[in-house]
Design brief:
Layout lengths: L31 E4 L2 E4 L2 H4 L6 E4 L2 E5 L26
Antiparallel strand pairs: 1-2, 2-4, 3-4
The structure holds iron/sulfur cluster.
Iron/sulfur cluster binds next to loops.
Length: 90
């Protein structure tokens, strides 16, 4: 389960933290998407974070994230909280 009580350190702008600092749960976030084999974030502030790697898919920008990452904008999908880690969208 996500550790909701913890504040990821992470990047300066959005506090995105990689999985190695977790475990966190980008994969349970409303902003998480999987497209073309990539695990991505569509949140505009994360995409604009200068420390994030951004890719274009179909003329939209997405930030590359890990399923076990997290940031300060995480919005959990309540109904999926009990789904095992790594099983969403892959
Ligand atoms: S937790 Fe943050 S980085 Fe991860 S998908 Fe959600 S908004 Fe994006």
């Amino acid at each position: 389960m996500p550790r909701a009580d913890e504040k990821p350190s992470g990047t300066k702008a959005t506090k995105y933290s990689p999985a190695k600092e977790g475990p966190f749960r980008c994969d349970l976030c409303l902003h998480y998407v999987v497209m073309k084999g990539q695990t991505l974030c569509k949140h505009s502030d994360v995409v604009a974070d200068p420390e994030m790697e951004v890719i274009n898919i179909d003329r939209r920008k997405y930030a590359k994230v890990e399923p076990g990452g997290c940031c300060e904008y995480q919005k959990k999908v309540k109904d999926l909280r009990d789904i095992p880690f790594g099983s969403v969208g892959l």
